[in-house]
Amino acid sequence: MQLLAQVSSETDLYVAQNIFFAVIAGTMIYAAFRVVTTANVVHAALWLVVVLAGVAVQFLFLGAEFVAVTQVLVYIGAVIVLFLFGVMLTRASMGDDETVAGEKRAMAAIVGVLLFAVMAVALVDSFEDTRVDIDGPQGVVEVSDAIFSQYIVPFEAVSVLLLAALIGAIVVARKD
Amino acid sequence: MTDVAILGELAYWQQTGIRVGVGLAAVLLVAGTLVYVHLFKLVSFMQSRLGPMEAGPFGSLQLLAEVGKFLQKEDIFPRKADRFVFAAAPFVVLMSTFLLVVVVPGGPDAWFINSELGIYLAMAVSSVSVIGILMAGWGSASKYSLLGGLRATGQLIAYELPLILAVMGVVIQAETMNMQGIVQAQADGEIFGWGGIGNPYILTQFVAFVIFMIAMQAELTQTPFDMPIAESELVTGYMTEYSGMRFLLFFIGEFATAGVFSAIASVLFLGGWWAPIPGLGFDDNVWNLLGPLVLVTKVVVLTFIIFWARFSLPRFREDQLQQLAWKVLIPLSLANIVVTAVLKIVF
Predict the structure, then answer these.
(1) Rounded distance, CA A126 to CA A121, Å?
(2) What pLDDT band is residue A114 in, cutting at 50, 70 and 90?
(3) In terms of pLDDT, which residue wins out, A10 or A73?
(4) How many alpha carbons lie under 13 Å from residue A165 in its C-beta half-sphere?
(5) Which residues from chain A sit within 8 angstroms of residue B12, using beta carbons?
(6) B144-177 burial by CB neighbour count: b if 16+ within 10 A, else e?
(7) Residues A27, A50 contacting (CB under 8 angstroms)
(8) Contact B276/B96 with Cβ under 8 angstroms?
(9) Secondary structure (3-state) at B198
(10) ipTM value of the model?
């Protein structure tokens, strides 16, 4: 049993998946533009929820259930909540805040376009026309086996990095 | 629920239709039962008052009367409110509840989804409701709502950690995150070689059970953890500006979530839909009919504990609440994980 319906593997053209991919990708692009164009900080955070939820669904299309659920738990359930919490504690004005979209907009647009170009070139260059066969969801067992054997060193490095960040945050936040 | 046994032969849209229908029934019927049995009757007895008894036999139609009352009320928007955010917030909270129901199995074949991720998925979707509460708190453009929303968020973040860490003990012992697998592990379990009642994890994971119940009480913002809606300080917190239908949605969400969390707790610690009845195998078809009833019985018992605590304990202070979570429950649940993991390897 998987979280998303899958058409029979006899054809290699997944019609339903392709249509929904396009619908969700379109929604994500629209929401992403709204994140950076809206003048209301809380609205921006809520549009970001739409983008991140879209990412979770795209992971489901790729059969990566564990990653999709982690995306929801970490990004929507924790990161966005912290965003909103911080915004509401500090500047929870109801209307539009004109200082949000200042004159730095052009600069940000250039950085965004450049970042997109670099990532697009890197992806196209490294994968070209490789087809990834997805037969069914990726099991939790396979994911954990991979993490704790093949990728144990990067995994431990990431956990040490996160711990360091955590301690650093406490040190910065403590005044005494 | 018997329909679910033949799901394999139905088309995808038919399966989805049945799942949506049964899911709606599971949320609304359970919420209604809890409101009637616990809120109307039990609490009335505990507080020496009569409770509803005019509408229908033993006041059983009171629930319909209440719903009718809320539906008739005007749907008021505060003038400065952010209309869309304000209007959408109750639906975000209720959506998280509906998605939670989906992971709870009711029998060997009576499930909505039988995902390998099970309990992990439940923890992920339950964390989404915080966004709905923040939306309600901010969108209302009221200082009471905003304070209530912020308090709720601080509390929900703090108690989500012990909740998830308590679940880890069960997952380690059952060796799976699949809810069905956790039920089966308890049904097949043995207590020192005696398999008469299986091995409900409330025995081996009692510490985790207590932590889970306390954290659940806080996640549901029930007294003694009801600072977010503290009526003597914040009117009703993030729900202050809501009226009519949208208030009803929050209300249903509150009780339905209590029911669903209790169902998850009974799957994790009390053996879920399985009960030790001699002569019945784990995969017997009769469980598809009997299982949901067994599960609901366990849910009623667990929610009884929730409402018992709710109506007999005074409210914590905000700093006491945070201290309980970070200084007591989280270290305790971490210790429980270590002990469980060590014992799992030793035995």
Answers:
(1) 8
(2) very high
(3) A73
(4) 6
(5) 5
(6) bbbbbbbbbbbbbbbbbbbbbbbbbbbbbbbebb
(7) yes
(8) no
(9) strand
(10) 0.78
Average pLDDT taken over every residue of chain B: 82
- Domain count for chain B: 1
Q: Which 125-154 residues of chain A touch chain B by CB within 8 A?
A: 137, 139-140
Amino acid sitting at position B69 = K
**pTM of the prediction?**
0.83
B86, B8 contact by CB (below 8 A): no
Question: pLDDT value at position A115?
Answer: 94
Bridge partner list, B198: B196
Burial A90-122 (b: 16+ CB within 10 A, else e): eebeeeeeeeeeeeeeeeeeeeeeeeeeeeeee
Whole-number pLDDT of residue A163: 94
Q: How far is A123 from chain B (nearest CA, A)?
A: 30
Between CA B173 and CA B189 the distance in angstroms is 10
Question: In chain B, whose CA is at the least distance from the CA of A64?
Answer: B117
Residues in chain A: 176
Strand partners, B194: B191
Containing domain of residue B184, as a range?
2-346
pLDDT of residue B233: 72
What pLDDT does B174 receive? 85
Q: What is the Cα Rg of chain A in Å?
A: 20
